[in-house]
Predict the 3D structure of the following.
Amino acid sequence: MTIHEKTHRPGAARLDSSLVEALLAGDESAYGTLWKRYNRAMIRLAMAYVPSRAIAEEAAQEAWLAMVRGLSGFKGQSSLKTWLFGILLNHAKTKGRRESRSICLSALEAPASKTPDGRGVDWLKLREGASEILTPAWGRSNLGLSPEDRALGSELRLGLEQAISLLPAAQRAVIVLRDVEGWTTGEVCDLLGITPENQRVRLHRARLRVRKALESYLDRS
Amino acid sequence: MIDQNLDCTVFRESITHLLDKALTPAMTLQMEKHRQACDPCRQFLGEIELTIEVLGAWGRQEPEQETPASLQATFDEWQVSLSEGDRPVADRPTALLKQLLAISSEQRLPEVRSRPRYHRPELGEMVLNEAATMAVKQPLEALQLSELGVEICRHAAESETLDATSAHDGLARAWAILANARRICSDFVGASEAFRSAELALRLGSGGPSSRAHLLRLRAQFSADCGRMEEAIAEIDEAYSLYQAAGDSHRAGRALIAKGTLLGPPADPAEAVELLRAGLGLIDEGTEPRIAVVAKHNLIRCLLACGSLEEALSMVSETRALHVAMGNRVDLVRFQWLEGEVRLEMGDLESAERSFLEVKTYFVDQGIAYDAALVSLDLAMVYLQQARTTELKTLAGEMVTIFQALGIRRETFAALAFFRKALDIEQTATLGLLHELTETLERARRPEDFRPHLSVMS
């Protein structure tokens, strides 16, 4: 059995540390590096708390600005990543509360997870779809795959996005950080202020729902 | 056969714990046994693993994005808003200068235009100092840096952190340095425009004596290059008076040396000798060693023109040693030009040709077109004396091309064209004709650019 467990990238802490030094020294390229490394994850995490990607992007941008302005006061007591994502969480939650009076667009759509699935699931097909997402496009095209195969990859991505968008915020934050971004249990617990047990329960619920949504997606396709 | 100690629900609910290695050894063992025995649960575990794998791949697949301009601008604004003490080390002028010099010259102007962090008067000052230092050694690089310095000062002037008077004082200096850099690179039209901008900025600024004297001494050299000798002398005299009034004897001495250089051969070499000697007496050689070398170098020229060949020769070895110690490539080239002329006067045509050819090659490589054309005239003297008509015709053709590209005044060009035609039609040319041509060119431009002199204004 291959037990899949993502771990935090080796050397990431060391890289963080050198980035902090560069930032404190005013090295402009360090901002770019940091932004490229974390911005996508920040938007994904923010989306757990706000109703749209546009608002999530706003929250991420506000977090970056807050980080820049607070940089001279950063004491290095936590990792840069935890500090930055902590800022993001505050901004995203605040925005989420503010936006809660509006109707979330996704709430108006039929959740994929509610699609009936009376038939057996073709996980082999999912594997094929996954291979599209897991394999660089050039590699697939070199193999002479049809455009339909590539479209399946795009559909799968959309299916994943929708499945994650329908998760409750608490589950969504955990699955994004753990499975999408590859954070460790410890990092997620530190950021969200939850116990490892609580984190696993949320993660498990989220994984089951995403798996179910993928089933539904494959059924429809 | 399914392990009855663990039902499928428990197995499926414990999968995340299993993958996190958060189960007890005993429970892990039961899970493994169940997995081996139960096909649907084994498949379910595989599906969860695949789900995780797909999620991770999806995370990695999203395309890279560039940092948005708005965010980058905020970083810049934040950095600019800091006081110098709070400013990160890498955002201080010295570090910014280093960063700018590290990127290619083509990228520097766009970088400066788009980034507020560079819009600082101290940085402009440093870039211009760098340009002024390089003006003689690397004229093209100095020209690019001068343009960069002007751009930085222009943006700094538009920022709210600088008062208008200081901004214009900075701009006046920047434009004057750019004008001088353009002059050195033979861009007379561009130099003229830059001097006009410098004058305008000076009027809008404090117009202080120091700023005005700086502009005057640079413009004097330009006026001389344009053949406006009286204007040049008036400008340098005014600069001298301003320095004298301020009690700045070093710069006053510098002005005398500059004037002596302007009055060098063929204008008034005897007067020039006196001015250069007086200037050497006023300057502080320790403050600006190059000025002393320049004065001695030009004194040799003037002595040569006055017929004091022996005295000139007596200074040659000392001055060459000073040049070598200074390590300035352009100065050394000009000294080589001067030595070539000395050899020519002494009748050592072979050595003279070698010197002139090397000097010409250097100016062509550096894009200093006018001087390349001018040293060609000295080379022509050698060829004429040796009756080397073929080389002479080739050389005349080159000179015509260069002068045409420079857009010099019509009568000067006509004289050169006549010389070339004489070579073509009559297959001959005389030293008298070449001297006549040289005199015509000298009327068009100060002799300093016709001979291996050194300028104190670069």
